[in-house]
């Protein structure tokens, strides 16, 4: 798999450098990169066209590359299209750079559900809706659909799920691996940094 970390947004609601904010001694972006790096063969971090390259984890066991959005703050669908065009693996796992509590087992489940279903995209269900991120997507189909949608003026990430066959992973299945639902929590405002509680020690 290729891991795609979306990091090209404005962070307007946060009021500062959101992806540089710290959670347990590491930035939000570093934590997101580390999570996908545990299950992917490469990591692509999508940045705004003129954004400086951020500090990223040292010693990541897989190659890491930066991808530039073709337009400033064009939205996540534009960033996904740009990253899928450079992904070297047949399946991509897409997460937000502001999702510091991703569980590797949930990410791996997404991909296994995608493979087993024979569909083109897999997403997690929470409550009565499919979540925007994280998602797993087959690169050829996802790239073609994303580029087609962007060319037509579409910018909503949900449009990708509506465009290609999607496997929805029910909540009971993925919550067995992540009972607190931490993998879906992102950071929009400073107060969100404490929303998942303290880091739990791993065995």
The CATH superfamily title: Spore Coat Polysaccharide Biosynthesis Protein SpsA, Chain A
Number of helices: 6
DSSP strand count:
9
Order of helices and strands: EEEHEEHEHEEHHEH
Q: In the CATH scheme, what's the topology name?
A: Spore Coat Polysaccharide Biosynthesis Protein SpsA, Chain A
Query: Strand sequence of the main sheet, in spatial order?
Result: 5-4-1-6-8-7-9
In CATH, what is the class? Alpha Beta
Q: Percent helix among the residues?
A: 25-40%
Shape: globular
Head-to-tail CA distance between termini: 26 Å
Biggest sheet details: 7 strands, mixed
Proportion of strand residues: 15-25%
Task: Please describe what this structure looks like.
The protein is α/β, with parallel strands linked by helices. It has one domain (2-188): Spore Coat Polysaccharide Biosynthesis Protein SpsA, Chain A. The chain is 28% helix and 23% strand. It contains six helices and nine strands. The chain has helices spanning 28-37, 76-84, 104-117, 139-151, 158-163, 171-175; strands spanning 2-6, 22-23, 26-27, 42-47, 64-68, 91-96, 121-126, 129-138, 166-169. The strands form two sheets. A seven-stranded mixed beta sheet has the order 5-4-1-6-8-7-9, sandwiched between helices. It has a two-stranded antiparallel ribbon with strand order 2-3. Strand 7 and strand 8 (129-138) form a beta hairpin. The longest helix is centred in the middle third of the chain and has 14 residues, at 104-117.
Describe the structure concisely.
This protein is an alpha/beta fold. It has helices spanning 28-37, 76-84, 104-117, 139-151, 158-163, 171-175, and strands at residues 2-6, 22-23, 26-27, 42-47, 64-68, 91-96, 121-126, 129-138, 166-169.
């Amino acid at each position: 798999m290729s891991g795609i970390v979306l990091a090209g947004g404005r962070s307007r609601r946060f009021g500062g450098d959101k992806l540089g904010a710290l959670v347990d001694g590491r930035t939000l972006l570093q934590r997101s990169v580390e999570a996908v790096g545990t299950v992917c063969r490469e990591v692509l971090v999508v940045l705004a066209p003129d954004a400086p390259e951020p500090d990223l984890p040292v010693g990541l066991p897989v190659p890491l590359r930066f991808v530039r959005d073709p337009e400033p703050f064009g939205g996540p669908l534009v960033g996904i299209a740009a990253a899928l065009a450079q992904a070297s693996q047949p399946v991509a796992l897409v997460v937000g750079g502001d999702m510091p509590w991703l569980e590797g087992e949930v990410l791996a489940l997404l991909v296994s559900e995608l493979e087993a279903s024979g569909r083109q995209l897999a997403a997690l269900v929470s409550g009565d809706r499919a979540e925007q991120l994280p998602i797993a997507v087959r690169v050829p189909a996802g790239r073609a659909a994303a580029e087609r949608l962007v060319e037509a003026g579409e910018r909503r990430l949900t449009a990708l799920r509506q465009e290609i066959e999607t496997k929805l992973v029910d909540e009971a299945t993925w919550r067995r691996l992540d009972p607190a639902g931490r993998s879906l929590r992102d950071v929009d405002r400073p107060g969100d940094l404490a929303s998942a509680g303290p880091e739990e020690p791993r065995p």
